[in-house]
Design goal:
This protein is mainly α and 152 residues long. It has helices at 3-32, 45-69, 77-109, 112-126, 132-138, 143-151. The longest helix is centred in the middle third of the chain and has 33 residues, at 77-109.
Length: 152
Amino acid sequence: MELKNFIKSLSIMHLFLLIGLSIFTIWVIFQINTFNTDSNAGSVFLYAVPIFAMIGYFGSQWIFKKMTSKIQLNTRLEDKLKKYQSALHIKYALIEMPAFIGLFAYYNTGNALPVVISICLLAYLAVQRPNKDHIIKNVPLTTEEQSQIQQA
């Protein structure tokens, strides 16, 4: 496994997830083309979306840290990176799912709260872009492995 290709594939995957969610967000906003802020609508979505968003946000951080903390220092670099990649996939999925639920809720109710939450989750996903520094920070690496990643 070439490190340069690994980082590039992670970045491309992240970019496609970001573009897909962005396009869907824009499409939903243009389909509804209205905002209402009625908090007395009695819709279960107004309560479920913030709960799902919090679970997704905090859950993505917690599971990512838990999965990366289980990576052993003495395993091969390739195995470490595969486990890191799996942790990233789950982290991204836990961010995207509540965003899609929020967009679905906005599509059904026209209420602004779910779409605002979805846009916040989209912004959070955008800043989660993988790079060398994040790998070095989150994966237990030897100094040799750190220098290999820096040089990639």
